[in-house]
Amino acid sequence: MSISKHFDRWIPQLVLGPTLLASLVFVYGFIFLTGYLSMTESRMMPNFEFAGLTQYHTLFENERWWTSLTNLGIFGVLFIGLSIAIGLFLAILLDQKIRGEGFLRAIYLYPMALSFIVTGTAWKWMLNPSLGLEKVMHDLGWTSFTFDWLVNSDMSIYTVVIAGVWQSSGFVMALFLAGLRGIDDEVIKAAQIDGASLPTIYWKIIIPAMRPVFFSVILILSHIAIKSFDLVIALTSGGPGNSSDVPAIFMYQFSFTRGQLGLGSASAMMMLATIVAVLVPLMYLETRSAKAMR
Questions:
Q1: What would the pLDDT profile of 202-218 be if each residue is shown by its tens digit?
Q2: What would the DSSP string read from start to end of 110-161?
Q3: Is 262 helix (H, G, I), strand (E, B) or coil?
Q4: Rounded to an integer, what distance in angstroms lies between the CA atom of residue 124 and that of residue 91?
Q5: How far is CA 200 from its chain centroid?
Q6: What pLDDT score was predicted for residue 189?
Q7: CA distance 211 to 274
Q8: Angle at CA 152, nearest 5°, toward 151 and 153?
Q9: 3 state DSSP class of 50
Q10: Helical H runs in the chain?
Q11: Which value, to the nearest 10 degrees, does the dihedral of the CA atoms of residues 11, 17, 18, 21 take?
Q12: How many CA within 13 A on the CB side of residue 257?
């Protein structure tokens, strides 16, 4: 009996051990390796001779890097903000127990089942001035209509926002809908008895109670935005020129196609620092609010 209890005590460690070991090696180990390579003069192949912060100095002097950061800021703010606004709006509509809710929920969720490569390719066809929306409107007789954002260097990053929001807003809706369904109906009924209107109930009672859901949504969308690569590659390839470049494309091209592995590693570490800069304040605020509610 004692042998059985001893075995039961160790079985979780035996099951989780390989996963923990793999995470330490293939996640944190490679983060450490990338961080070290960012402080070397590595080019086509790794060079482990320490060179200090030279690559970071070169990175911050690279105009393309600052362009990619600017694009990431534009994409991130609009992508997260619009996805939350549209997702919350759709969730509130479906929360009214409308007919055909299951069908509509499936329609809204369907884009998330697609890969970003498929989404980018489809929107590239639709936004191509010679093939998509602009051509359709011209064929219908509206010859003054123009929508050339895809080939306009000042607007190309906004086409990435459109495609990203289209794909992710349904997923955000599902998260918010689950949060709405978790709100106690008695609270809503009590507010209605007190004479509160439905918009007031949502704005002052329900939405503030969904803070943990907002935390999860912002965290997930921030992660998607910062590591965005395949969507941009499929839709604009970072162009025209470098007008829709983002840090993930910068990192890939300098690391693997331009033979500047050290510079690419430095950009990868800056992307990691960006994720941490978003994650840590969010976790701190969530932990602090959770303690305040106790």
A1: 888 888 888 889 988 99
A2: GGGGS-HHHHHHHHHHHH-TTTSHHHHHHHTT-TT----GGG-TTTHHHHHH
A3: helix
A4: 28
A5: 30
A6: 79
A7: 23
A8: 110
A9: strand
A10: 2-23, 30-37, 54-60, 63-94, 101-109, 116-127, 133-139, 156-181, 185-193, 198-201, 207-209, 211-226, 230-235, 247-252, 261-292
A11: 180
A12: 5
Helix axes 101-109 and 156-181, enclosed angle (nearest 10): 140
Tell how far CA 270 is from the center of its chain.
17
* Cross-strand bridge partners of residue 50: 40
In terms of Cβ atoms closer than 10 Å to its own Cβ (0-12, 13-18, 19+), residue 209 is middle
Taking CA atoms, 63 is separated from 60, 70, 76, in Å, by 8, 11, 20
Tokens found for residue 77? 């703010």
State yes or no: cis peptide before 240, omega within 30 of 0: yes
More confident residue, 189 or 64: 64
Contact of 162 with 175, CB cutoff 8 Å? no
Residue-wise pLDDT for 98-128, tens only, equals: 777 788 888 888 888 888 899 999 999 999 8
